[in-house]
Amino acid sequence: MKRIAVYVPTLRSGGAEKQATILAAMLSSEHEVHLITLDSRHEDHAPNVRRLEMSSVIRHFIYGNAFSKVRQLRSILSENKIDVMFNYLTTPDVLGCYAGRRAGVGKIYNGIRNSQLPYTKFIFEKYVHNRWATGTVFNCQSGLDAFVSRGFRRDRCIFIPNCYPDVSPPVSRPDKREKEIITVGRFVPQKDYLTAIKAIAVLHDRKDFRFNIVGYGVLEKQIRRWIVDYGIQGCTTISIDPPNVKELMHNADIYLSTSLFEGTSNSIMEALDFSLPVVCTDVGDNNRLVMNGVNGYLHRVRDYSAIANSIGMLLDDLSMRNNFGRKGNLHLRENFSPSLFFSRYSELL
């Protein structure tokens, strides 16, 4: 049995947080696992908390500035004689690597969850990857290749795609007079909501759909202005961090993602779980989730006209929507299973 630490900033809703709790809960079936998060004002996402409560994971909180966090991390790692550490996102990658080395942790794996990072974060990640980390786990092959091309040591790069546990049975939806198009994600520039809004504006005269934007973040006011500027307020709803995302996904008919870059998109995986056809940009590892013309459509970034055309074809064809949805659900079940995820991480131990 190993003593393992998983370090992630918070347990808010988000891809990194979800994957961190999945990993911690899975590994706790065979090992002693400690989950370290900040004690912050952010509310924990209920599904992440439930996942931990159903496991034997031991939770720790750290406080204060960077120096204080390093001291607390080192103390937690030393006192619990941690053998292996998994960090998620840039701040934990940097602080966790430094504290882990000072505490004598044998193996330290960082985690990068995107195919691109801002320049400053990239520099920090590259330094700790090449000098301190045992390795860095990428959840997307496209990200691994991009970072290696910019100086990351390839022999320390590991590709492990995200896991999706408990895939739902496939769903066939009835036709509706008013179809639901949904997009889910943080309100940040990466998600390029302007392109989504432009695509919906192209389709606005159809009058046979509604568009639901689900999420939260710093761009909320800007998104609301864009909705008014492009005249789609009559068919658009904004749902701010709602507790019933699963219900909203179940009631939807088409999933839309217009990101400028991605890793392995958890939101698209959730769409496949709900048997939704997906229209998305061809970024990150989206092409590993969406097979063009099979379970959805892939497009160039910012190509709102082509995106609108694909959405229009799906709105017009119930059989296509259900066929795409079933194939996407099967693809998720066969290629992103918990058993594969667990075995890949177990190899690192």
UniProtKB/TrEMBL annotation:
MF GO annotations: glycosyltransferase activity
What the entry lists under InterPro entries is as follows: Glyco_trans_1, Glyco_trans_4-like_N
Q: Which residues form the Glycosyl transferase family domain?
A: 171-328
Q: Where is the Glycosyltransferase subfamily 4-like N-terminal domain?
A: 14-163
In terms of Pfam families, this protein maps to:
Glyco_transf_4 (PF13439), Glycos_transf_1 (PF00534)
PANTHER family (UniProt xref): GLYCOSYLTRANSFERASE
What's the protein called, per UniProt? Glycosyltransferase family 4 protein
Protein species of origin: Candidatus Aphodosoma intestinipullorum
Q: What is the lineage of its organism?
A: Bacteria, Pseudomonadati, Bacteroidota, Bacteroidia, Bacteroidales
